[in-house]
Write a structure and sequence with these properties.
The protein is mainly beta. About 5% of the residues lie in helices and about 55% in strands. This is DUF5916 domain-containing protein.
Length: about 800
């Protein structure tokens, strides 16, 4: 056996044997009954299957209190039966004032302020990797994959739920097919299970099995479901064929496009699942919140593509996977502009690479070993340049055919701990950059669940034409995780060649940083508060090579929520002078920013009311100069009725007298004093006809202007200070910027069958960026509307096909 494979097997075998099980309170146990007559999922609990069954009851308070019994006026009972195809759950949610039941109509995975009933199922009973099912009093369904504190609502599976209501309360009826679950090959199953009821008008939630919030996580304190015997999971094979059509009109030109493709989900065995997307289409993903970016780092966007958000918890370990790298801007996009000849113009330079296909395999064995494999292939991308004198055109490859690969091994033990090994790899065809990163991670709790130890060791290797670079980074932290009073310390390190940005995301390297924190938090209502948390923190940041003090700072923060669900908080901190080694854009140079103090305050009112409000403001002021920054955001939300919700957002940023990078010269780094302000207006409106049909409006206008003060230009000195110079922006690069972007989406979504939906979308977008920094907001908006607007209409239909249902149809 090769030494590398032998080491991995010993490594995971050792992890499985570490320590003993966590001490816990006695668990509630419910034994499910097999039914010969499956209930009809209509929300009316009059089926024969629900007669004469044991009840799971005696719920206790989870929030805001700690273990208080549920009042008789809100008695809650749950029954469970099963057959050869699915698990069935009936919930009796009694309410003495049924007129107060909150049931806002929303679309899938949006619970809003509704009353809801929630089920967490852990088929391996390992305290981790649970699947959550929730249904609101209005009938909206939500599902998520729970890993630690992470709730992945991008995880969607096909299951059924229906609700009803009468003068005694409301009722939920749920069917969870075995094809939606992964479970061990045992004659009798033992699953971790937890039920939770949210009563919104009382601002209270209750669980079936008691959860001690001061110790560990909710996922580690489930009850036990037994009695399920001799079940054979069906073949887990489903298809999601899609078709889409769009009409795009921009600057007087109209284009039409038609796409068709297929997503496949296949259960390789009872533990592992294969997901594939063939001929993917991401034409209807949400717009990114693009801003004017004058800093040294790229702007980071959230992932909107379902394939890259669903079931990716294994691949995100160690923060080595930034999924937007797959199908992102070609690595040679800027080279096309830099390398074009004087007499050439760029006819075409795609800003995105096309994804050819992608697959992921993930699952976890009975002994807690999680295995994940991800692979994606992107197409070759070319820029087209034309000689304006001869008319001849040439093509330049900006991104070759590329393969992205991730392999993860994650061993869970003791229901709260893990050790992991992850490798990411990017291989590009031809004489281009390749990369490989390997990480070893551990996240371990002691037996009493009172201390947590987290560590990471990562090694990067970048293969450049004729050159290789190897880098290293590490992290270690220890934290008290039990009781009201908690504390922790951590250390982060990276050398100067650490680089994970081919598939991951890392803004900085060459650091050696230290952090301390301590906090006091409550888990029971105290006085007027349901909960509050007060924290003190400090940090000391250093450069690794050469060993240089970068900055030292500390502060305090507070979070509090009253019994009336009014939340508020903020922070105040003091920071020393800061040596910024990245703003100058030249290696081994830095600019020194003066010591500063900063503060933040925010409030958030009760979302249960028709009108609610979020307000936040931040202020920072620097010593020895007039540099300062201010931020203010204002977000009211109006719930007109149970179907119609509108959220308006306004944000204002103003940065004054900031020394900022302008340009690089052969001998100098040029800086200037910059003022920068921005306005953002956004609107989200949802009208839901039912929980399966709704209209959604999304609008955003972002305007930002950056203006460099005349006569304020300087060159950067070796000691981080600035010396004034004469810099003529008319003859050189003008750093002033006026940026304005407008996006509007109006969509109609219809879930016409389980797992199937149709989306009709209209989009309107306008963009402008120039150097007219003297324009005010209204003038910039007028200029924007003189730019050509893009109008896009698209229709996308996805249909869910379950292999087992098709097979049964043919058999019958």
């Amino acid at each position: 056996m090769p030494a590398k494979i032998r080491f991995i097997l010993i490594f995971f075998s050792f992890g499985h044997q570490i320590s003993a099980q966590i001490d816990s309170l006695p668990r509630k146990n419910y034994s499910a009954t097999k039914t010969q007559e499956s209930p009809v999922i209509d929300g009316i609990l009059d089926d024969k299957a629900w007669k004469n069954l044991t009840k799971a009851n005696n719920f206790v308070m989870y929030y805001p209190g700690d273990g208080d019994p549920i009042p008789p006026s809100h008695n809650t009972e749950v029954k469970i039966v099963y057959d050869n195809e699915a698990l069935y759950i009936a919930a009796y949610l009694y309410e003495d004032k049924p007129g107060k039941i909150v049931k806002q109509f929303t679309q899938r995975d949006n619970l809003e302020q509704s009353d809801y009933f929630q089920i967490d199922i852990n088929t391996y009973d390992d305290g981790e990797n649970q699947i959550r099912f929730a249904v609101t009093a209005a009938g909206t369904r939500a599902d998520a994959k729970i890993t630690g504190n992470n709730e992945d609502y991008g995880f969607n599976i096909v299951w059924e739920a229906a609700v009803s209501q009468d003068e005694n309360g409301w009722y939920a009826e749920i069917r969870i097919p075995y094809s939606a679950l992964r479970f061990p090959e045992n004659q009798e199953q033992e699953w971790g299970i937890q039920f939770l009821r949210q009563i919104s008008h009382r601002n209270e939630s209750y669980t079936w099995n008691y959860v001690d919030k001061a110790v560990g996580l909710m996922s580690q304190q489930t009850g036990l479901l037994t009695g399920i015997e001799n079940i054979e999971p069906p073949t887990r094979l489903s298809f999601y064929p899609y078709t889409s059509a769009e009409i795009d009109r921009f600057d007087g030109q109209t284009e039409t496009n038609f796409n068709a493709g297929l997503d496949v989900k296949y259960g390789i065995n009872k533990a592992f699942t294969l997901d594939m997307t063939l001929v993917p289409d991401f034409g209807q993903v949400a717009y990114d919140d693009v801003e004017l970016n004058l800093g040294p780092f790229e702007q980071i966007f959230g992932e909107n593509r379902a394939f890259f958000t669903e079931g990716t918890e294994l691949f995100t370990k160690g923060d080595l996977f930034y999924s937007r790298r797959v199908g992102n801007t070609p690595i040679g996009f800027n080279n096309a502009q830099r390398e074009k000849l004087d007499n050439e113009e760029i006819l075409e330079n795609p800003e995105r690479t096309d994804l050819i296909n992608a697959l992921k395999i993930s699952g976890r064995t009975e002994r807690g070993l999680g295995v994940g494999f991800f692979n994606a292939v992107t197409a070759e991308t070319k820029a087209i340049l034309r000689d304006t004198l001869t008319g001849n055109s040439r093509k330049k490859i900006t991104e070759p055919l590329a393969n992205y690969n991730i392999l993860v091994l994650d061993q869970r033990f003791n229901k709260n701990s893990s050790i992991s090994l992850i490798n990411t790899n990017v291989t590009r065809e031809g004489n281009f950059r390749d990369a490989n990163v390997t990480g070893f991670l551990f996240d371990v709790f002691n037996k009493a669940n009172s201390f947590n130890f987290v560590g990471e060791a990562k090694m990067s290797n970048v293969n450049l034409p004729g050159q290789n670079e190897t880098g290293f980074a590490s992290l270690f932290s220890i934290n008290r995780t039990k009781g009201n009073f908690r504390y922790g310390a951590s250390h982060e390190f990276a050398n100067e060649t650490y680089d994970i940005n081919d598939l991951g995301i890392s803004f900085t390297n060459n650091y050696n940083n230290f952090y301390l924190n301590t906090s006091y938090q409550t888990f029971k209502p105290t006085g007027i508060f349901n909960q509050y948390n007060i924290e003190l923190y400090a940090n000391h940041q250093r450069r690794y090579r050469p060993d240089v003090n970068v900055a030292t700072g500390g502060g305090a923060s507070i979070f509090a929520m009253t019994r009336e669900r009014f939340a508020f908080g903020g922070f105040a901190e003091v920071n020393s002078a800061f040596k910024d080694f990245f703003e100058p854009r030249r290696e081994n140079t830095f600019i020194t920013y003066q010591p500063n103090i900063a503060g933040n305050a925010w409030i958030s009112s009760d979302y249960r009311k028709k009108l609610a409000l979020d307000v936040r403001t931040t202020y920072q002021v620097f010593n020895k100069n007039s540099q300062e920054s201010f931020n203010f955001s204002f977000k009211p939300r109006i719930r007109f009725n149970d179907r119609f919700l509108v959220i308006y957002g306004f944000e204002y940023d103003n940065e004054i007298n900031r020394p900022s990078f302008v340009t690089l010269q052969p001998q100098n780094v040029i800086f200037g004093i910059r003022d920068m302000k921005s306005f953002e207006n956004s609107l989200q409106a949802n009208y839901n006809f039912t929980t399966k049909q709704g209209l959604n409006l999304s609008f955003r206008n972002f305007w930002s202007v950056a203006q460099f003060e005349e006569g304020s230009f300087s060159k950067l000195n070796k000691d981080g200070s600035l010396t004034s110079i004469n810099y003529d922006r008319k003859e050189n690069y003008n750093p002033d910027a006026n940026f304005n972007i407008w996006n509007l989406d109006l969509s109609y979504r219809w879930q016409f069958a389980p797992g199937s939906e149709a989306i009709l979308l209209y989009r309107n977008s306008i963009f402008n960026q120039d150097e007219l920094s003297y324009l005010d907001f209204q003038q910039s908006l007028d200029n924007l509307f003189h730019r050509p607007a893009r109008h896009n209409f698209s229709l996308r239909i996805v249909y869910y096909i379950d292999y087992n249902r098709v097979k049964n149809i043919f058999n019958s």
